[in-house]
Amino acid sequence: MADSTFLDSTELVLNMGPQHPSTHGVLRVIVKLDGERVLGTECVIGYLHRGLEKIAEHRTYQMYAPYVDRADYVASVSNGLGYCLAVEKLLSVEAPPRAQVIRIILTELNRISSHLVWLGTHCLDIGAITPLFYTFREREYIMDIYEKYCGARLTTHAFRIGGLQYELYDGFEQECRAFCDLFLPRVDEYEELLTGNRILVGRMRNVGVLTGEDCKAYGVTGPILRAAGVKWDLRKAQPYSGYEQFDFEIPTGQNGDTFDRYVVRMEEMRQSARIVQQALERIPDGPIMAKVPKVIKPPVGEAYVSIEAPKGELGYFIVSDGSTQPYRVRIRPPSFVNLQALDKMARGSLVADLVAIIGTIDIVLGEVDR
Amino acid sequence: MRKLLRSVFFVDLLEGLWVTFRHQPPRNIVTEQYPAERPKVAERYRGAPRLNNNPETGETLCIACNLCALACPETLIVVGSERNEKTRRKELTTFTYDTSRCMFCGLCEDACPVDALELTQDFELASYTREGAIWDREMLEEGPKPTHYKY
Asked: Which ipTM score applies to this complex?
């Protein structure tokens, strides 16, 4: 009896995280291992829980807008757009056309910056260090645009209910145009660095396969769904904020593995730059704020608005009881729903692949835990 | 065969390394040498709060209307005021701003009707004590005084 230790057993249960560099925050994954093989995983979340949905019940509608930036802090502008659209739907107002186009420019830049963070960290996880520095260098241009536009870099609070608070600064269009011209060759440069790289492709191909049916069953959205070959993008399927006026493609993959998700996201960055270029050509003149009362008191009712955030479908469900504060705000975060599929993707793979699979879901724990 | 030769001579690796070495010249250096080199923040940057004085008279612009305190999501602003018996106007006595709880959303400066409260370009807000993060009226009017290092 004394001879046998726990090392003799073939099955081993390990904790990965919450303090692990590859879990992109404070995610704890309990992994059951048979040697190097993953038998099953279980996610423990809540380490970054701040009660964002509860906070909403004690804030007025305008006051809550800065908080939603903290849900997905890598794509804070998209969060702000989703929340503002939901409250606008409750109030039955629509932002003026100028505000809508500026909103599209900023959210598409945000999609690029979110994907750049994903690309850098994902490649870092699976052993390529260089892309991190390149992607963060390009992200800096977007951060500078945000800083000049609204005064903050990460948690921007760029949009207000009914439109925008800030008018464009001098040189905004030139800077965005210059960024798009600079960025498109840079994406080719990343591809040059990564797509042909045998090690990287070896680490990504046929890893974490999720078929289209599985994606639908789990409610997975965003690039993961599109990489599985399902052409579903809310910007096309149910256009909001005037996306129907823009010409862009929805990239899809076939296999639904990590490599396809990489390809889809790279192409999405190019398409986002294309949308920005188109939008810059057609910023209309006019007001940037719709007629919204100073004290927002929506009629009794509820509204659900979902937008295509960089990570998938981001939904805001708001119930109003006619007072100045929302009765209930429910956030449908894409990362949280996509994280469900981790077990399905990781089962049977190697421990080293688990890191790649967590990276490819592109989770932000602020959004998972809220 | 071609694939074998490519892998024998590390062609893929060299292609990747070529991209790396293309970025080596000094003109591609983007790192700022803070604190010797101070970052230039944008004009609209939302940093340390400031309570503006009238530049001519030196009197505060604040009319003690309390709108900033009502607009703040974290209710971290406390405005103290006193009614002047002569002019029948409210006058500002104290103004407390807790920067440790502030998230720099800018709602207070949007709410201010006279542009008295403003978020400025100062970004160095560290202090040695928790109490040091709670700014009184004097601190808000003068602004933080960070050390400027020279090397």
From this structure: 0.77
Q: Decide which of 3.30.460.10, 3.30.420.10, 3.40.50.2020, 3.30.70.3270 is the CATH code for B49-142.
A: 3.30.70.3270
Domain limits, chain B? 49-142
Nearest to A331 by CA among A55, A105, A143: A55
Tens digits of residue pLDDT in A114-141: 999 999 998 888 888 888 888 988 898 8
Counting as low any pLDDT under 50, the low residues of chain B are none
Instruction: For residue A32, list its beta bridge partners.
Output: A13, A40
Contacts of B73 in chain A (CB under 8 A): 59, 63-64, 66-67
Contact A157 B105 (CB under 8 A): yes
What are the sequence ranges of the domains in chain A?
A: 6-369
Distance (Å) of CA B56 to CA B59, B89, B113, B137, B140: 8, 21, 20, 19, 18
The minimal CB distance from B41 to the residues A134, A147, A149 is found for A147
B126 touches chain A (CB under 8 A): no
Q: Identify the residue among A50, A73, A150, A168 best suited for mutation to test binding to B, counting B beta carbons within 10 A and taking the highest.
A: A150
Q: For the structural domain made of A6-369, what CATH number should be given? A: 1.10.645.10
Q: Which residues of B touch A166 (CB under 8 A)?
A: 44
